[in-house]
Write a structure and sequence with these properties.
Blueprint lengths: L35 E7 L5 H9 L8 E6 L4 H11 L2 E3 L6 H9 L7 E5 L3 E3 L3 H11 L3 E9 L5 E2 L2 E2 L4 H10 L7 H7 L7 E3 L1 E2 L3 E5 H7 L11 H11 L3 E12 L3 H5 L1 H19 L6 H24 L1
Parallel strand pairs: 1-2, 1-4, 2-3, 6-12
Antiparallel strand pairs: 4-11, 5-12, 6-7, 8-10, 9-12
């Protein structure tokens, strides 16, 4: 597999690592090589969890280990789905956030590959195997993601550039009122049809070599929700690996189900994580004025979005 872009947008060229995650040896004919664990985080899910698990059956010829982190209170629903599809449930209903739940479900990881995915995605047939094969073909791959489709078939921009202070501010302020502004266009990246490197990948569906996940320590649990994937992508790049988007692997994401149930809470969590990322990724003293301005702009946008959500 040729990776046509080895430079993440806005970043320097990423070097080949000498301690790239070891790829499992080839297996006998007809048996896909490499073992995989699929983890998902359930917060009082509806039928989406069953649909997720059902679609997973056709996504891989492997027999994945499936672990569900139960972050909610509807334990019976989660346990029924787990029993039906041969999954294991961890957690006691404590809401650890997305990253915390995923870390818990991956804590005893022994498989070669780890998938972290939202329970509201639908796997297309063969999509997980395509992701794994792309990872096996590129030793520098530290994180891989599929092409995400919205339920209406349009492409969701799931492989993006890492946000800069100026670019992130421009996207935050202008993204809703002028979607085609240059800051948002650069942030969303291009919709390429070949495997390519990006700055970060949407946490709705990620594949990592186990060695990369363990070296990075999983998600930063300081991000309760949102931006844990941006932070992970940044750390993948700093470690010398690539974030690769594999458009041949396709999943459908019913994005927005959680937002619709708890819009104000989700809006506030999103903006809180955005401010945390801005502060953590741009800590220099000389960046303080712009950092403060961006944080203030994010707070103002948060209040506008909350008022709009309350109006319905």
């Amino acid at each position: 597999m040729a990776v046509v872009q080895t430079r993440a947008p806005g970043a320097c060229s990423l070097p080949r690592v000498t301690d790239a995650a070891p790829r499992p040896p080839s297996a006998s004919a007809g048996t896909p090589p490499g073992t995989v664990r699929v983890v998902t985080v359930a917060y009082n899910p509806g039928e989406e969890l069953d649909r997720f698990l059902e679609s997973l059956r056709a996504a891989t010829a492997r027999t994945p280990t499936i672990v569900i982190a139960d972050n909610g209170t509807e334990h019976e629903r989660v346990n029924r789905a787990a029993e039906r599809y041969g999954a294991r449930v961890v957690g006691d209903g404590t809401n650890r956030g997305y990253g915390g739940g995923a870390n818990l479900a991956a804590r005893d990881l022994t498989e070669d590959w780890l998938v972290v995915a939202n329970p509201d995605i639908l796997w297309r047939p063969g999509s997980l195997d395509l992701l794994i094969e792309a990872g096996r073909a590129e030793p520098r791959a530290g994180c891989l993601g599929p092409r995400l489709l919205n339920p209406d078939g349009t492409v969701y921009p799931s492989g993006r550039a890492l946000p800069s202070l100026v670019g992130g501010a421009g996207h935050a302020v202008l993204g809703r009122v002028w979607p085609g502004n240059p800051f948002s266009v650069a942030y969303h990246g291009t919709n390429e049809d070949v495997t390519h490197a990006v700055g970060w990948l949407s946490g709705a569906c990620l594949l990592l070599p186990a060695a990369a996940w363990k070296r990075l320590g999983g998600f930063d649990e300081g991000y309760f929700m949102f931006f844990e994937d941006v932070d992970l992508g940044a750390r993948v790049g700093r470690a010398g690996w690539l974030n690769l988007q594999v458009p041949g692997a396709v999943v459908v994401h019913a994005q927005g189900a959680s937002w619709k149930r708890r819009p104000e809470r989700m809006i506030r969590a999103h903006h809180a994580s955005a401010r945390r990322y801005v502060s953590a990724s741009h800590p220099a003293a000389w960046q303080a004025p712009v950092r403060w301005a961006v944080s203030a702009g994010l707070k103002a946008r948060e209040e506008i979005a909350v008022r709009a959500a309350r109006r319905g």
